[in-house]
Each structure stands twice: as structure tokens, then as C-alpha cells.
From TrEMBL:
Keywords recorded for this protein, A-Z: Membrane, Protein transport, Translocation, Transmembrane, Transmembrane helix, Transport
Subcellular localization, as worded in the UniProt entry: Membrane
Provenance organism: Zobellia uliginosa
Xref: InterPro entries: SecE_bac, SecE_sf, Translocase_SecE/Sec61-g
Keyword Transmembrane in record: yes
Protein name: Preprotein translocase subunit SecE
TM spans (from-to): 27-45
Amino acid sequence: MLTYIKESIEELRNNVTLPSRAESSNLMVVVAVFSILFALATWGVDTVFSKLVRLYFDNVLN
């Protein structure tokens, strides 16, 4: 386990490059926009299904 941790730290130091601050900001905006769009799409589908289920049960029970 100790060898694995040492090798992981070594790999992080030598092989991983972090994006620039500008690139990180751009990626953050992209993630935020897609998260908002996905949340709105989920809300929309949930609302439609909720209304369909309510309509179905109102017609079945009446």
C-alpha cells in the first residue's frame, strides 16, 4: 500500500499538468451552464410526468 501511495504521488508530480487559470474558468462556466440546463430539463420532465399521472388518476378515480 505504501508503494502504491508513493508511486501515485510521483505520478502526480511528474505526469499531471494542471490547466491554466483562464482554461479552468472557461471549463467552470461550461460545467455550470450544462448543470443548469440539465436541472431545467429534469424539472420539465418531472413536471410533465407529474401532470400526466395526476390526470390519469383523476380520470380513473372519477
